[in-house]
Amino acid sequence: DQELLAQMMDDNSRRPQPWDAKQVMYEALISSALQSAARAEELGMAHEQILLSCKVSGVQDLIAVYRELAKRTDHALHLGLTEAGMATKGTVASATALSILLQEGIGDTIRVSLTPQPGESRTQEVVIAMPLWRKQYPGVEQLKVAVMGCIVNGPGESKHADIGISLPGTGEAPAAPVFIDGEKRLTLRGEGIATEFQALVENYIRERFGAEQTA
Question: Model-level pTM greater than 0.70?
Answer without folding.
Answer: no
